[in-house]
Automatic annotation (TrEMBL):
The active site is at 256. It is an enzyme of class 1 (oxidoreductase). It comes from Ectopseudomonas mendocina. Residues 20-484 form the Aldehyde dehydrogenase domain. NCBIfam families: OH_muco_semi_DH. Keywords: NAD, Oxidoreductase. CDD domains: ALDH_F8_HMSADH (cd07093). It holds the Pfam family Aldedh. This is 2-hydroxymuconic semialdehyde dehydrogenase. InterPro entries: Ald_DH/histidinol_DH (IPR016161), Ald_DH_C (IPR016163), Ald_DH_CS_CYS (IPR016160), Ald_DH_CS_GLU (IPR029510), Ald_DH_N (IPR016162), Aldehyde_DH_dom (IPR015590), OHmuconic_semiald_DH (IPR017628). GO terms for molecular function: oxidoreductase activity.
Length: 488
C-alpha cells in the first residue's frame, strides 16, 4: 500500500505549478493509487517554452561551459543527496526491483550529469589553417552555440536514466529544456525539478510539463513554433508522428526508438556465461528495455542443451515485490501494457509456438494479483516471418531458434525492420571481429550486454532511430555550430 497520495506538479520558469486537470498515477505492483499528476494544457506548455526562450536572453544564456559544467555537477550532487527518494519514486512508478533502481536507474542519472559536465569542460572545437590564393595564412575555426529551446520527450521504461541521458547534454550545451516525461512515470522527473530548483538552476533553463502524447502536453510541445530541436525516446510509430510535426519549421530531431534485438550464441561460447547473459538480456526490467533480446539464435550443436538451461534459469527467476530479497523481476508498467504482452502470448500459440516456459500470469494469492505481473516466457518453433519474431513485444519473452552457419545467422538477424542492438556469445576472436560489423544495428555487444561507455555513440538504424547520442555525438546534436574564417 502506498503512503498518502501525492500531487505531482509542473515546473515552469523556476516555479511549481498546479493545474485543475489531473490524472491518476497507479502502482503496477498492486493497483493502488500513488498520487495525482497535474496535466499541463496548451497554455501551460506555451508558458514553459516561452520561459525557456526567455532564459536564453537571461543569466542562463551567459553561462560559460565551465559554469554549466559546475552546475551539472551540483545537480548530480543533489540527486545523490536525495538518492533514496529517487529510488523510492522510480520503484513506486514502475514496480521494478529496488536493487535495479539503485544500481542502474538512479545511478545512471547521476552518471549522465557527471559525464556531460566533464565532456563540455574538455570539449575543444575544430580549427584549420590554410594559405589563401593571395598568400595570406587563414584560420577557420568552429564555435558551439545552443539551439535554444529543446523539447525532451521520454518513455516509461527507464524513466530517470533516459530522461537525464537527454537533459544533461542539452543543458551542458547551454540549451533551455522543456521535458515531458511519460504519463506512466511522472515521479522521478518531478523530483529532478526539485533538485534543479535546489541547485539554483536559472529560471527557465529547466521546465517540466506533465501530460500525455496526442492532444496533450506531448503534442503541444512538439508543435510549438519556438521549439528549436526535439529529442524523443519511445515507440517507432510515435517517432514517425513526431517527425512529421518536426518538419514544420525544419527542427532537428534525435530519435531513440523501438527494437527487436537478437542474441547470437555460438557453440564455442562460455556456456554458463551465455545462459546468464541471455537471461539478463531477455528479462532485465521485465523485458522492458529497448535493447532486450526478443530473438535468440543458438548454433545447432548446443541448441537443445541451451534451451533446457535457459528454461531452468528463467524458472529460477524470482518475481515479486520490489523490495523482496533476491527478487529478479518486478511487474510490467501497467495493465494496459500487460494486456498488449498477453495478446502476443495468445498470438504465439496461434502462430504455432512451442511454449518452453511461462506464457501466463503468476498467481501470488495476494494484492500483487491486482498488479501487472507476467511470467518470464520462452518460445521456440516459430518461423522467422511470425509476427512474434518480427514485432517488438517489450515484455519478458524471447523466441529461441537454431542456426547452422555464420552467413545464415547474419542474414536472419538482419532480416528485421529494426536495427538497434545485437549481443554475440563466442570465444572466437576472429569470428567476433568478422561478424559484428555485418549486423545492421547501432550497437553490438560481445560476451556481455548493456555494458555502456557513455562516451560512445548510441542509437539505432531503420525503425530503431535517427542519430547518435553519447560523448561528443550528444554535443554535436545539442549544439549549433558556426564556422568562422579569419583572413588577416
Ligand atoms: N532506442 C532507445 O534507446 C529506446 C529507449 C527506451 C524505450 N524505447 C522504446 O520506447 C517504447 C516504450 O516507451 P513508451 O511506451 O513510453 O513509448 P511511447 O512512444 O508510447 O511514448 C513515449 C513518450 O512519448 C509521448 N508521446 C506519445 N505520443 C506522442 C505524440 N504524438 N507527440 C508527442 N509525444 C508523444 C508519451 O507521452 C511518452 O512521454 C518501446 O518501443 C521502446 O523500444 C527506445
Ligand atoms: O530501453 C532502452 C535503453 C536505452 C539505454 C540508453 O539510452 C543508455 O544506456 O544510454
Amino acid at each position: 500500500m502506498n503512503p498518502s497520495p501525492v500531487l505531482l506538479r509542473n515546473y515552469i520558469a523556476g516555479e511549481f505549478v498546479t493545474t485543475k486537470t489531473t490524472f491518476a498515477n497507479i502502482s503496477p505492483v498492486d493497483g493502488t493509487l500513488i498520487g495525482h499528476v497535474c496535466e499541463a494544457d496548451a497554455d501551460l506548455v506555451d508558458r514553459a517554452v516561452r520561459a525557456g526562450k526567455a532564459a536564453q536572453q537571461g543569466p542562463w544564456g551567459q553561462y560559460s561551459a565551465a559554469q554549466r559544467a559546475q552546475l551539472l555537477h551540483k545537480i548530480a550532487d543533489g540527486i545523490e543527496r536525495r538518492f533514496d527518494e529517487f529510488v523510492a519514486a522510480e520503484v513506486a512508478d514502475t514496480g521494478r526491483p529496488v536493487h535495479q533502481a539503485r544500481t542502474l536507474d538512479i545511478a545512471r542519472g547521476v552518471a549522465n550529469f557527471r559525464t556531460f559536465a566533464e565532456l563540455i569542460n574538455q570539449a575543444g572545437n575544430e580549427c584549420f589553417e590554410m594559405r589563401a590564393a593571395d598568400g595570406s595564412d587563414v584560420f577557420s575555426f568552429s564555435v558551439r552555440k545552443p539551439h535554444g529551446v529543446v523539447a525532451i520527450i521520454s518513455p516509461w521504461n527507464l524513466p530517470m536514466l533516459l530522461l537525464t541521458w537527454k537533459v544533461a547534454p542539452a543543458m551542458a550545451c547551454g540549451n533551455s529544456v522543456v521535458i515531458k516525461p511519460s504519463e506512466d512515470t511522472p515521479s522521478t522527473a518531478t523530483l529532478l525539478a526539485e533538485v534543479m530548483h535546489e541547485a539554483g538552476v536559472p529560471e527557465g533553463a529547466f521546465n517540466l510539463v506533465h501530460g500525455f502524447g496526442p492532444n496533450s502536453a506531448g503534442e503541444y510541445l512538439t508543435k510549438h513554433p519556438d521549439i528549436d530541436a526535439i529529442t524523443f525516446t519511445g515507440e517507432s510509430r510515435t517517432g514517425a508522428t513526431i517527425m512529421k510535426v518536426a518538419a514544420e519549421g525544419v527542427r532537428d530531431v534525435s530519435f531513440e526508438l523501438g527494437g527487436k534485438n537478437a542474441a547470437v550464441v555460438f557453440a564455442d561460447c562460455d556456456f554458463d556465461a551465455a545462459v546468464a547473459g541471455v537471461i539478463r538480456s531477455s528479462f532485465t526490467n521485465s523485458g522492458q528495455v529497448c535493447l532486450c533480446s526478443e530473438r535468440v539464435y543458438v548454433e545447432r550443436p548446443i541448441f537443445d542443451r541451451f534451451v533446457a538451461a535457459l528454461k531452468q534459469a528463467a524458472e529460477n527467476l524470482k518475481i515479486g515485490y520490489p523490495d523482496e530479497d533476491g527478487v529478479n523481476m518486478g511487474s510490467l508498467i501497467s495493465h494496459k501494457h500487460r494486456d498488449k504482452v498477453m495478446a502476443y502470448f495468445d498470438l504465439a500459440r496461434d502462430e504455432g509456438a512451442e511454449v518452453v516456459t511461462g506464457g501466463g500470469i503468476p498467481n501470488f494469492g495476494d494484492e500483487r494479483d491486482r498488479g501487472a505481473y507476467v511470467q518470464p516466457t520462452i518460445w521456440t518453433g516459430l518461423p522467422d516471418d511470425a509476427r512474434c519474431v518480427r514485432e517488438e513485444i517489450f515484455g519478458p519473452v524471447c523466441h529461441i531458434a537454431p542456426f547452422d552457419t555464420e552467413e545464415e545467422v547474419i542474414r536472419r538477424v538482419n532480416d528485421s525492420a529494426y536495427g538497434l542492438a545485437t549481443a554475440v556469445w563466442t570465444r572466437d576472436l576472429r569470428r567476433a571481429h568478422s561478424i559484428t560489423r555485418k549486423f545492421h544495428v547501432g550497437m553490438v555487444w560481445v560476451n556481455t550486454w548493456f555494458l555502456r561507455d557513455l562516451r560512445t555513440p548510441f542509437g539505432g538504424v531503420r525503425l530503431s532511430g535517427i542519430g547518435r547520442e553519447g560523448g561528443r555525438h550528444s554535443l554535436d546534436f545539442y549544439s549549433e555550430i558556426t564556422t568562422i574564417c579569419m583572413h588577416p
